[in-house]
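## Example record

The block below lists the input lines for one assembly entry, exactly as stored, with component labels intact.
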Amino acid sequence: MENNKDKVLEVKGLQTYFKTDSGVVKAVDGVSFDLYRGETLGIVGESGCGKSVTNLSIMKLIPSPPGKIVGGEVIFKGENIIALPEERLRSIRGNSISMIFQDPMTSLNPFLKISTQMVETIVLHQDMSKSEAKKKAIEMLTLVGIPAPEKRIDSYPHQFSGGMRQRVMIAMALSCNADVLIADEPTTALDVTIQAQILELIDELSKKLNTAVIMITHDLGVVAGMCDKVCVMYAGRIVEKALTEDLFGKPFHPYTSGLIQSVPRLDHATQEKLFSIEGQPPNLIDLPDCCPFHPRCHKAMDICRSKYPKLTEVEPGREVACWLYMDKGEDK
Amino acid sequence: MAKVKSTKETAVNEFDQEIKGNSLGRDAWRRLKKNKMAVASIFVVVIYAFLSIFASVLPIYSYKEIILDHQHLRPSLTKTAGELMLEKKKKDLYFMAYKDGRVEIPAEDKEALKEMSPNQIWAYFYEIGEAGGIELNTSEQRKLDRMIEDIETELMFDIKKINYLSDEGKFVNIEKLSVGQLTEIYSGLIGASISDIMVQSEKEVTLQITNQTKVENDGVSDEEMARIIANELESITTKAKDKLLIATLVSKIANQVEDYAEDDLQAVAEEGSTSFPLTKTVSVNDRLEAKVQATKMHDRKYFFGTDYSGRDMLSRIIYGGQVSIAIGFIGTITSVLIGIVVGAFAGYLGGKVDYILMRIVDVIYGLPYMLLVIIMMAIFGRNIMNLFFALAIVSWLTVARMVRGQIISLKNSEFVEAARSMGASPGRIIFKHLVPNSLSIIIVFSTLRIPAFIMMESFLSFLGLGVSAPYASWGSLVGDAVEGMTLYPWRLLFPALAMTVFLFAMNFLGDGLRDAFDPQSKNQL
Amino acid sequence: MTKYIIRRLLGMIPTLLIIITISFFIIRIAPGGPFDSERSLPEQVLQNIEAKYHLDEPVIVQYGRYLFDVLRGDLGPSYRYQDHDVNFYIFTSLPNSIILGIIALTIAIVFGISAGMLSAVRQNTWVDYTTMSFAIVGISVPLFVIGPVLQWIFAMNLGWLPTSGWIDGDYGLKTLILPSITLSLGYFANIARLMRSSMLETLRSDYIRTAKAKGLKNSVILFKHTLKGALLPVVSYLGPAFAGIITGSVVVEQIFRVPGLGKFFVQSSFNRDYTLIMGVVIVYSVILIIMNFIVDIIYSFLDPRISYK
Ligand SMILES: Nc1ncnc2c1ncn2[C@@H]1O[C@H](COP(=O)(O)OP(=O)(O)OP(=O)(O)O)[C@@H](O)[C@H]1O
Ligand SMILES: [Mg+2]
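Predicted structure tokens for the full assembly:
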């Protein structure tokens, strides 16, 4: 076990529900993980499995109503964020924990200049005057590779390309030396060449600033390249948690192996057809007590249909929620 | 995978996307049903629609029957017109007595009187008078007595049907008889010569046509008018003319019959033991008999009061609603259809057609078009058709823009692109997808458009530029009422209320529909 | 920007021309003329009058003459009111209409925007429900009902305010209250609803989420980040609102006997006082066009994505 002092974020049994017309959507239902300084944690899973909700819950940014964090704790530097008063919360947001969103086209305020948006964050969290803050902002823009930042900083977002806007978002997120950076699919909306650059940038900067990163992604390639640890999510729960090399080396959960198999790989040139997991993830309303993956699972057993498998440590540092391994786990 | 069909699947199989995609309408309906205001609004709208559609068979008084005795009677649920007339008369007399200095009132009341509205002042003296505090002189008392007498005895006759005993011994409704037969009957009835009657009724019919034409061509110069009238008289067919002749003769005969009936029924009524309404078959002579109903004229009850001509406000509000709602609905449908066609053309054809059509729309949008409508109504004469036309030509703009936008976005959308690349014709695609995609917007828009249309109509009627008497619309009723609203507030309040409730309901319904079709626009919960 | 303004100003000319043309011909294609009702006039006198006002010329010549006069700023003589010409009537009554219109508009905009914001921020609380119920009243009740009802309540029954009159009369500024409330209520309601829904939409947008994630204070988020974007739909609505206020003022001026332009408009339409109708329409249109232009400029200031070159 690593030193407790280095643990920057601990999520325990997080539950976030949405009340909708048709019922309560259990978007996140008992998610736990730890994050250590300088570490990069990947969260993967299909669309709608609750990745974004998990991370918005960490910042307590769930739109409420309809959303509500109904259980669990998010411990940041010894404090439970969920229970913090609004004011204290604000001093954490954007300062100690900052976020980069999926769609850079809509995540910057189109009505305000880049400079305004960057400076206000810096002035808010750091003890700086406006002009100092602007200098810092230009510095950050240089760092993320915006050409001629002194000039560009006074532009409006619509005068930037998507990739540049995402760089601005990154610059903004890192301008206050955050301890944790949450990147919610930062490259999904960008084209492939830019994607690599942006990811590299995040990787490089987080190493440099010793920032812990939560990287949310669909792309297992990204996970393999960047992350130290991975959480695989399915239907609002974590189904497998492992170090990256372990996970790719030997996936336990059938869903994980499905995901890995569905990644196109050059070294498997013989593979005729791309594998895909059939079926769709379940509706998160009124999920019965069963393994939510069982209808799509090759290896489903009777017990899978009647009881939910708890996330259990099956090997040191490896947890999985699957009946296939439960006995094995209990044997030990 | 085959597993999808296993036992515990029900919950797992419900996927959001599928439910939403397949039954937008049903989903919207479900959401609408949850919205209490919208459901209540549906009820209100249905009630209004019912009243408007069945106005002519409802047990209400005529909306255009003028009874001058009943002028400006206040609304009352319990008192009859007669009682109210008496009350009004007494108020008048008591107040006159005060004016003459025949009434002593405390000094502080005198001060208070200065602050009171006429209605309050009348009520004040009525109270004193009824308590016996005001002595009326003999001439005043006589006036009252005469009025009471009239109220007791004045009857109103309603001739339901007049039958004529034909030569075959069968009774036939006189409306089914020919001009010749009617002339003969009438001549027998009043003892004038057949030819005189024929000449007279010819004259009357000509006059009728002339007057009608004059009304229709209001504002034409004299020579022009003469020409039009001559033309009209020339071109009328024998059949049409016979119809007019028959109507004239029937009403003449009915008048005669009413005189007979009056004598007959008055006698019965004076016996005192009869109850009203009194329905009787009266025979005029051997060959003519009529079914007559007599009611005590002043026994009527006006729940909503009466107007300046003694017309029943309740009935006028219902008929006014009929006009307003009809204009609202038909106008909206017309303008929406024009809008859909123009918008679909512009969006579908694109290019120059689109450009030109949209520039036209822009220009009209920029115009103060209600002002133009006002000018048009003032100049072309106030009738419902003109009103309708003037409103419809300026109301299609928004729909056209909306439909065009929808079509263009559909045309460029990826799934249409994909379908086209597979060989489906874009026109078919657009119409296949336009229906589910735009219909909801159009429904919502139309629902919200109806109250707007009704408002425009009543706005014009209020200014005296729309519907005019004897017809009514909510706007004209409110417009008429503004003049005397201190004295006769009910004339303002009831139509205003009727109109407001309907507009409310339509707006709530429109809002509800919008939220139901587009849950994004409101937050879910 | 200057170029754009000049171009827009030039663009007003054709619009105005269209309005003049349409109203000119609508008025004239209708049968009958301004002096028809004076039947008692001998033929010769009538002809003289018509010649005096050039009504005996072909319509197209009249049209050309009229355009030329308008260009010189002369709206011609009134056919009904012999004392002064149209310019006089318009410029004595216009200020009153403008005062009423501006007050009504200010009420509608200021209160509408605040009420909409408040209701969005306090969504689904009693504040929201009350405001929105009030707004739906404002939308559903036509102003010619509101006017008389307010008169009935506040002037006749409570006696707090005068029923009618104008600021130069005995009651002074009090006379402004009822007419301006009547005129503004519908637009207040529309603006409040529009503001509320656009505010809610903006508050749900990604960039507001970003602002929250940055730890900004609620007030900063509201006023600095949300307001501008949320105002855009309201600003676009102002164009139609101006048109509506102009039309509405015609009725309100009648109800409250305001000595404004509206009175002349309705009367002259009935009287077929050609030049006076045209004059009023032109003035109203110019106001409307200028207002729309101002709206566009405001819009471009609010939205940096729109550039006017
Ligand atoms: N505002 C909301 N109201 C109702 N349900 C919501 C809301 N936001 C999210 N959800 C539900 O929560 C679930 C998880 O959503 P989330 O956005 O976390 O998915 P995700 O894993 O981030 O997907 P993606 O990869 O597409 O971003 C979804 O099923 C969604 O329907
Ligand atoms: Mg997401």
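Strands of chain B lie at 155-165, 171-173, 278-283, 288-296. Residues 313-349 of chain B form the longest helix (37 residues).
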